[in-house]
Amino acid sequence: xxxxxxxxxxxxxxxxxxxxxxxxxxxxxxxxxxxxxxxxxxxxxxxxxxxxxxxxxxxxxxxxxxxxxxxxxxxxxxxxxxxxxxxxxxxxxxxxxxxxxxxxxxxxxxxxxxxxxxxxxxxxxxxxxxxxxxxxxxxxxxxxxxxxxxxxxxxxxxxxxxxxxxxxxxxxxxxxxxxxxxxxxxxxxxxxxxxxxxxxxxxxxxxxxxxxxxxxxxxxxxxxxxxxxxxxxxxxxxxxxxxxxxxxxxxxxxxxxxxxxxxxxxxxxxxxxxxxxxxxxxxxxxxxxxxxxxxxxxxxxxxxxxxxxxxxxxxxxxxxxxxxxxxxxxxxxxxxx
Length: 337
What we know:
The chain has 337 residues and is mainly α. The protein has 2 domains: 1-130, Farnesyl Diphosphate Synthase; 162-315, Farnesyl Diphosphate Synthase (Orthogonal Bundle). 67% of the residues lie in helices and 0% in strands. The chain is built from 15 helices and no strands. The chain has helices at 3-8, 14-30, 32-38, 46-64, 72-91, 99-111, 116-127, 137-159, 165-186, 188-193, 201-206, 211-220, 225-245, 257-276, 290-313. It is globular. The two termini are 30 Å apart. The model is unreliable at 323-337 (pLDDT under 50).
């Protein structure tokens, strides 16, 4: 965490500054796309995003760290301990020793984020310890409410909106879901290694395959055109969710749009990389080429600088980024991608 970011966010307590720094380290280490996009936000909002990501990453590591020798029972107890710390931090009812909870609790108070988003998130994390597959997209959707949709809803108060927050909320939730669907497709092989498959059984059955066929392909390295058809259909479904999310970018505070647009372009670009690689995700991870990432990042930087200059030149009310701030009255326009 840079001193400049913490000072801009008025984070002065040494323990709290260290907690935010820990979250920033998690974001930089594990969330390359998110970290890059976060750097396009105004400096005073970056610590909050790092705190939200740090909490989600910490919980996810408890559940999914393949290098850990912890048993499912030990992971479940660790999640319960994290939830107890979260309860203490949000309600200020006891001592909090976990840095990510210290930073998260401070962010929640500063931005008035609904506590239910975090309990819903942990409920989905717990299900990962016992649920290894899903019958339908409806079942996957219920899981993703807690694991993905609430991430977009947590972010919305930090990003700010140019109109009523509730109008932007469905699009923010859709973007969280779209990002996770991309993760599911990119990481399908790694998830099988963890004993989970997020592609629903109904989708596999529609193309004449089952989970055992996916496991066979992962194990042997052999290809099956029916599996490719499943993955192609999953990508098409994912792109439809991105389309649902897209109108929400124009509903954000203008100074936040370059961050989310950059994340949108880069993450949806993973689908392009998967397609270009022949849907070989059971055998290797598809990535956006470095040159493409650099071009998108540069475009985002140009947009961010222009938005901040326009914000400084424009007098009057600002976007709804903090509960105490008045709402911007700028018209909503479709954001190009």
